[in-house]
Amino acid sequence: MLRSIILAAARSARMEKLVATAPISRNIVSRYVAGTATEDALRVSRELVDNGLKVSLDYLGEDTFNTRQAEATRDEYLRLLSSLQADGLTPATEVSVKLSALGQRFDEEMSFRLVDEICSAAEAAGTAVTVDMEDHSVTDITLDAIHQLREKYPSTGAVLQSYLRRTEADCRELSGKGSRVRLCKGAYAEPESVAYQNRLDIDRSYVRCVNALMRGDGYPMLATHDPRLIEIGIDRATWFDRGPHSFEFQMLYGIRPEEQLRLAQDGYQVRVYVPYGDEWYGYLMRRLAERPANVAFFARSLRGK
Ligand code: FDA
Known about the structure:
Blueprint lengths: L1 H9 L2 H9 L4 H7 L5 H13 L3 E6 L7 H20 L6 E5 L10 H17 L4 E3 L7 H14 L4 E5 L5 H7 L6 E5 L14 H17 L3 E5 L3 H13 L8 E5 L4 H9 L4 E7 L4 H10 L2 H10 L3
Parallel strand pairs: 1-2, 1-8, 2-3, 4-5, 5-6, 6-7, 7-8
Helix pairs in contact: 1-12, 5-6, 8-9, 9-10
Bound molecules: dihydroflavine-adenine dinucleotide (FDA).
Dihydroflavine-adenine dinucleotide binds next to strand 4, strand 5, strand 7 and helix 12.
């Protein structure tokens, strides 16, 4: 219930204005977001890479409805990629891109052209792009775009969400040689017709998807903070005879940082998803929805306490 309310607030312009203008404690945002500038992204990436972790940088923004903003997002990714290369942070650091930030919702063709340019720059910088997955209304067009991108840039990554009923089949389809698939539970409010609603069903689906990806010949990227699913991932890797370099774990910046380091020290590859930029509102609200216990903490900071 609380989760649905927070996810609805994530899409509310009025709520966004209220939160953005409140004396919100910088600590809340900085717990989950690297900062607002390219330099913040580079600094945090350096710290993580020096600690043996890999990184995926996300320039925050979604639901862009004008061309200028979509092109500005593309420009920031191009600037970021050339700085990452200049600073020796590739290939350990890749980028994550949301097609809606490139205008997918109002000009699909343009969003494809812009993401193609970002993939090309990533390849030139010695790294890759993973295309984030958004709500179910864009699953098909996003997977189609990735399919086309992979013909030119084979290491382009896809994201699949275990809460969607279709995802086990998508995992089987995308488990072939060369594919990179990030498997997560899914962060949007979705209707029962397309998505499992309770945690147990979502977790069970996640395990079936792990099996499909680990059994295949691709490169699974298990994006979860869930201790049980991480253990299952390790178990399935052994079962399907995979070495620690044939898959990776992924977690979000600021969530279970000790566990990120522990897994890396145990010899697993761990990639931290690091968002940066001014458009932190939607991202932050989804993180709160995942863990309503954080809401009280957040509410206190809104009141300046
Ligand atoms: P779950 O939410 O059940 O949490 C399991 C445990 O993790 C909790 O019990 C707690 O210990 C800890 N935890 C989780 N969230 C926390 C928080 N906010 N604060 C503190 N502790 C917390 N989604 C999507 O729809 N499209 C996408 O493209 C992506 N991309 C993506 C990339 C990466 C690298 C990650 C890790 C996640 C995503 N997601 C995503 C988000 C994903 O779908 C999901 O919402 C979150 O990862 C939370 O799900 P968990 O699997 O962590 O389990």
